[in-house]
Amino acid sequence: MGKRKKIRNEIKCATQQVIVSRTNTKGDIVYCNPTFLEVNGFRSSEVIHKPHSIVRHPDMPKSIFKIIWSIISQGLPIQAVIKNKTNDGHYYWTLITIKPQKDRDNKIISYVAYGKQAPDVVIKKIEPLYNIMREIEENIDIEAALEYLESYLSEQKMTYAQYIKHLNKNREFRCLCDFIKYAIIR
């Protein structure tokens, strides 16, 4: 199984593993690195020219992908926390950065995504939010889920991008004492 370990149905990737994929403008995979294949349990021939949604976990609110597409289709990068499903039915959480790739005429030609294992502290914060959003989508619609997220983020005085950045700040510290040492020395 390489550098991943299973916890119940969850896969925890090694911290140094980086999952890379590239899609065309329609969202079809045109490249993925060996780590993507290993973690997701696919062979290259099973994912190339397939929609990236092949790894979309049903627990993920569709509204998050609507936000992602609205940002990247404008030519801007975005960072998000995503729960993906593997070919064998397991799942993993990834902190992903998606960047549009442009040609010489500044036209978007593809999107490259780089993902690492999302920190547990981030998952503990984002999972309940995503669960509420998914429930709103199921009971009302995507727009209502987006309104809920907007209201939630407004209370935090942040955009989605700022919220994800906020959740990730100081993630390199293993304990509070490391953070305090960093803050005092700085």
Q: Name the helix and strand elements from N-terminus to C-terminus, one letter apiece.
A: EEEEHHHEEEHHHH
Q: Return the average pLDDT rounded to an integer.
A: 88
CATH class, anyone?
A: Alpha Beta
Number of domains: 1
What kind of sheet is the major sheet?
5 strands, antiparallel
Rg from Cα: 17 Å
Physical arrangement of strands within the biggest beta sheet:
4-3-7-6-5
Class based on secondary structure composition and strand pairing: alpha+beta
The low-confidence runs, each spanning 5 or more residues with pLDDT under 50, are 171-186
Overall geometry: globular
What is the annotated CATH architecture? 2-Layer Sandwich
- Helix count equals 7
Describe the structure in your own words.
The chain is an alpha+beta fold and 186 residues long. It has a single domain, classed as PAS domain (Beta-Lactamase). The chain contains 7 helices and 7 strands. The chain has helices at 34-40, 44-47, 62-72, 120-139, 142-156, 160-168, 176-185; strands at 4-7, 10-13, 19-23, 29-32, 78-85, 91-102, 108-117. Helix 4 crosses helix 5 (142-156).
List keywords for this structure.
7 helices, 186 residues, two-stranded antiparallel ribbon, alpha+beta, Beta-Lactamase
